[in-house]
Amino acid sequence: MSIYSIRDLERITSTRAHTIRIWEQRYGLLEPERTGTNIRFYNDDHVKKLLNVCTLLNRGMKISHISQLSNAQIREEIDRIIAGSLQADEQVEAWINEAVSAIAAYDAPRFHKLFADALDRLGMVATYEKILYPLLVRTGLMWTKDALLPAQEHFLSNLIRQKLFTAIDALPLPETSAQKWLLFLHEGEEHEIGLLFAHYLLTRAGQRAVYLGARVPYADLQAAVSNIAPTHIYTFFVSNQPDNLAPELLGQLAQDFPECRICFSGGTDGPENEPRMIHIGSIDELLDTIGTDATHTNP
Question: What percent of the chain is modeled with pLDDT above 90?
């Protein structure tokens, strides 16, 4: 079981340490343990309870009322929220809080159950857009603030990768398609969940997608393009990189592969006056690109 300081709780739950102390003293909400030198610390159960308390507060419940609930009653309230339609913001927030708690405790079965429930009610696209992507953003911020260990962030990423690979495998592969997409990440980029989801969307739309994955050497990309002859090359820029990396790589792609549309996602600008360069900033923009280019083939 992990050990947390009150500052860790503050970062994980976005609740000020001063507020947490007041809740402890006034309502007995948490009972921290203490080291031999009388320094207070918290465990996974404390984190889970505090996240649940924050969810109930977001639903309009008073802290004075929440403090009177047993752990079982709090659990029932959270289950009731999650059992809703997952349309309201507070229901999504409840789901994300539950997922964060599962990730912090390395609880894969609980995450799998949460994911299955969301998938059953929302479908893959809405689950990614409304839940998984915000969850990734939140855990990424928590990691940068040292509120999650790198191992916990990797644990989450690998769980989501497993789900996306399973979803892709369940789709029928198109025998022929007007477009042929080659998906890759450059040698310094390893965050592939966005690219994997693009693979899912392309396959679902009936387009052939060849997935090379993360950290692809440029020479290997050139060989793949030569063999596959794609209509589109698609990449993501997620990690912090030198400012000149993305523009230079995109320019190189446009120069080396003049017969391809060059598509990219991430916070960067492509070369100006390059009509074959397409910035894709959302799911809808990717779907629009697929539809607009449906008749685009290699010259």
Answer: 50
